[in-house]
Amino acid sequence: MATIIKKMKKGRPYYYAVESARVDGKPRIVWQKYLGTIDGLVKRAEEAAPPKPKEAVIFEAGGIAALVGIAQRLELFSLINAVVRKREQGATVGHYMLLAALNRALDPCSKLAIGDWYEQTVLRRLWRFPKSMFSSQRFWDHMDKVSEAAIDAIQGGVASRVRDAFGIDARVLLYDTTNFFTFLATGNGRAEFPQRGQSKAKRHDLRQVGLALLVTREFQIPLFHRVYAGNVPDVSLFPELAGELIARHRAVLGASEETTLVFDKGNVSEEAMERLVVAGVPFVAALPANRLSEVFTTSLDRFVEVPTLAGVRAYTAETVMWGKACRLVVTYTESFFTQQLAGITHNLVRAQRQLMEVKKGLDRWQGGKGWGRKPTLAGVKKKVGEILSGQFLKQLFQVEVESVNGLPRLRYAVDHTALQRLSDERLGRTFLVTSHDDWPTEETIKAYRSLSSIEETFKRMKDVRFLRWQPAYHWTDQKLKVHAFYCVLALLLASLARKVAVEAGMNLTVPALLKELSGIREVAVIYPHGTLAHRKDHITLSRMSPRQRRLAIALDIGEVLGR
User: Fold this and answer.
1) Residue 23, domain extent
2) In whole angstroms, what is the distance from residue 17 CA to residue 34 CA?
3) Is residue 278 part of a domain?
4) pTM surpassing 0.85?
């Protein structure tokens, strides 16, 4: 074994590496190598130290890897590319659709900016396409290849794979609609879907597009969607979609499995309900209060408490509707009553203040002290109608507009009898109907209440951070359909990722999950040219919190990233 020794020459120390052995029984140096002076050794040691990094490049990793992993389990690439074929050159249609879905889920931007976003994610390393491959023009070209028939075929195949790969519970499916406003000019005639209608975002001045969605009750996993014109009311759309919904759920789940369809009162029509009854599809739906008013206004004395639902009482009755025996369930909820009463009180105060201002103005005219434009009887009636346009207000005010001395006069008063009747017979109540005559009352109520989860889903699609539908820079119906397709695909991937996380013991909302995953970054440490090996040897993940580490394990992020 070699050792280092010091030799003094002319009063200066020099160092050697030597090996010793016994020769003729005596220790002798059998090998030596000159190392130099102490200053020389220090200098060489400093020169041999690793070079300092030049820079570090950070890439979006956790969210990308988690959702790509879900897409791999669904075999999305093969499914999309089998339906929409193109030459085997460059990125496939599957790449473009998945990239758009990932972008919508994690950091929505326009097609002009999506190439830059791609360059800043691990997709650049995983797919190895240059960012020029995902220019806006190439995106438009590949979107043109995706027809409505292709979208239907893909979402049908996806639903089947979701069932097989993730074991979804589809015994209860939720159906609802929403709409998204656009900035398409009125004169743009290339798209028919964007129309002015009843905007749920209160942007009645803008053209909008409707989206119908069918999701599972557990985890709100979308199985079917349809884009429709923004001026089509729900009650007109549902009969058209009812048959398709029936066919969809049977194709995915099989005719032997019973699935209950849950929807709100805005979708109830004779045609749609008759289709469901004839097809034998079980349902839970809300009914308008005036449908069977004698049942809805039943005295609260006849309601019984629902033990499993705090503050809820219910009244049930049997009836025949649409040629089928159905059960009616009227629920009364204390918290709902309080909320409605507070809203009505607020509207009463506001309406009373506005009516008082109108009356004062008219009284000044009657006294010869009016100013401005002379009021007319028709104008005052129109104004009063606008003031009382809120829910219940017309029945809560006694209003009289008459002509006196050629000028309109207003009299009004709160109808306390009507207010008491409203409180006793309407507020806090919800009217449900179900084809299940064997379900416990609480099961019917819970099924209907689960519709609130699809409302949360729509809110996420209108969020500014994750899963955002907007901005939608598309000017034709075909492009809007493809846009809806990859927005719903983003929702699907995120919902399935949440399912995996919850089953691993991490009960996070979808936004919270995506936020945690987005915090996991891939870091490439770059050294000066020629100093170290290839940069792939110097790629690592950012430091993860305990929760992020658990998510990374549950969603196999390391496997997707090749670690």
Assistant:
1) 3-49
2) 6
3) no
4) no
